[in-house]
Amino acid sequence: MSGKSNNMNTNAAVNLPGAPVDPASLGFKRLLAAFGKNSPITAARELRAGNINTTYLVALSSGEKLTLQRINHHVFKEPEKIMANIQGVTAHLRSKLPPNTTDAARRVLTFMKKCDGSMIEWDGDGQPWRCYSYVEGATAYNAAVKPEHLCETGRAFGAFQRGLADFPIETLYETIEGFHDTPRRYKAFTDALAADRVGRRAGAAREIEAVLSREPLASRVVDQLASGALPMRVTHNDTKINNVLIDDSTDEAICVIDLDTVMPGSSLYDFGDMIRFGASTAAEDEPDVAKIALDMGKYEQFTQGFIAETRGFLDRNELLALPTGVLVITYELAMRFLTDYIDGDRYFRVWCPEHNLVRARAQLRLLEDMETKLSAMVTFIKNNVD
Description:
Blueprint: H1 10-14, H2 28-34, E1 41-47, E2 54-60, E3 65-70, H3 79-95, H4 104-107, E4 121-122, E5 128-133, E6 138-139, H5 147-163, H6 182-195, H7 205-212, H8 220-227, E7 233-235, E8 244-247, E9 253-256, E10 263-265, H9 267-278, H10 296-310, H11 316-320, H12 322-343, H13 355-372, H14 374-385
Antiparallel strand pairs: 1-2, 2-3, 3-5, 4-5, 6-8, 7-10, 8-9
């Protein structure tokens, strides 16, 4: 999935492991100046929550707080296209806010422009950076702290899709080619197996067999999109709970963040990833698979929020197909983690040599439990849309 641009309150940032950084050594003064920000830096911290990009919270003497983010150029080959997508989508979402909205800057992310109008600054190592406003008084949680956060997250991602229902989808770039082309992901997986470039295949035999045995699942959504049975939508494609900012005072979902992978896709992908990440009983990289299952109570809370916002523009057949996305996305991510492990950890950031294998095992265990609960997932949606 794409890298985090998590907004966390200042205290949370301070407490992150290894969070304080030296802004001078990272060239922050020059980067900020490129975006028209010249006040002295009073503090800088790395927010180590993401798998892809590298994100820093920077405080200025002017009182302003900004987010500086180094985009992973290996993953995102053309960052200018990412920013073109983001500029179009954020402008469209901002235009949908009620005319009397007084906190628009908290509802839609605001990215800084350089004097030439571009949104990317390249550093001396040829790495792309961007800068955007930090949203005060809101937190991106890695897991729901209160029950209402579940429904609010579902509502936020449903509202995101509703707000972009009339966006000109043909203007969007595909920021990662074939991102949810699961059959293509399957081929990449089998290619990695054949190459075994770092000699890890033998140590993952059980996980490899679990992926190979479910090959038919890979084409389930792609085939329906190709046939027209499912419509193409503007989708977020990284709908984790920590990509929604929750207001610290009201517990309302106020803003969807991490927009790198906004592109054409299926509503099933967004719903599926939201459930995969948010309704699991354990973390995405929990090493003890006995702790991992689909929490149906959480599933129902997320689903209620999502359906409340999408009913009326997602048709009944699309709504009833949403649980299929839960299985496909979980399978896809398990396969991606396992592919990256076998290939030498070239995509996802890892904190230990077996991190991607642990992630793959966790997702496969979650998928097993989801398969036993598919009927219950469909029934709950049917009861809420009929």
